[in-house]
Amino acid sequence: MNKSLSTLGLAMRAGKVLAGDDTVLKAVRSGEAKLVILAVDAAANAQKKYRDKCSHYQIPLVEYGTRLELGGAVGKVDRVVLAVTDDGFAGRIAQGLAKPAEVEEH
User: Fold this and answer.
1) Which UniProt keywords apply (predicted)?
2) Which domains does the chain show, CATH number per domain?
């Protein structure tokens, strides 16, 4: 498993990761989300929605892994989108999951 995915699991156990469409959107709108991770196999409308929302609210977005990989990293069946709510975890995870050009800082 990727070291950043292990860090994502640690963040989940620390209560610093949110999962699920409504929960993540609420965190993006409130500014609670410090990083959004979107599965590469997410539906096209979900990809557009999260790119637009993260861009508007200036939240970094990383597209990484499949829904099964993201779910496995946080101990769930499958997850399309995750939000990291801690700056420290968000920085470490973003750095490890993406090449610098792939992290969309808005």
Assistant:
1) Ribonucleoprotein, Ribosomal protein
2) 3-102 (3.30.1330.30)
